[in-house]
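During the no-cost extension, the postdoctoral fellow (Dr. R.K.) reprocessed legacy sequence entries with the updated structure-token encoder. One reprocessed record is reproduced below for audit purposes.
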Amino acid sequence: MHSFFPRALQALALSAGVMAAAPASAETYDFGGLLLGDGAPLTASFATLTTSVVGNDVLFTLNAYGLDQFNGDTPWIGAMSVDGVKTGEITNVNGDANVTMGKGNGPDGSFEFKFDFSDTTGKLVDNETVSWTWVGGAGQYTDFAAHVKGISYGETNNAWYDAALAVPEPNSYALMLAGLGVISVVARRRRPR
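Re-encoded structure tokens follow.
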């Protein structure tokens, strides 16, 4: 006689195996809550950061898409400060800006270091994207803030905005529901008639 629980555990293990076989899940952050910058908009959605941890490294992709909502000739993202430990190095930079690792800074001086996007060849402006790998960065950060420059609000020409974890994408929910569905099917099969 078979019991329901071993079957349910097998189904759960199967769904966990499917999740483990899936590529590493990415976290997406939206920049938009004002941290520092008198007169700048209190909320503004202007960039998305995607992080993926692969082993000890973190793969970043920063997409600027709403900088035109700021007053100013050509608003741009100059840096992204990191609340974490400055370690490792940057590799595999691709896209519309250079990325270097700079000294601490940030809206209140509490951020340990920054990824700087500005150099002599360009800046990260609207509809531009840059990606890079932070070698050794896995588990070394807790928060991010983006530095918007080239804005014009009285005497304020730059502002800092925080990153908020975005709502999980629908495919994350679909994977979870598929696992629950497998458990449900096994439970129905084992129900006494």
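The first helix runs from residue 4 to 21. Strands lie at 26-36, 43-54, 57-64, 76-84, 89-95, 100-102, 113-116, 128-135, 141-153, 156-165. The remaining legacy entries will be reprocessed before the final report is submitted.
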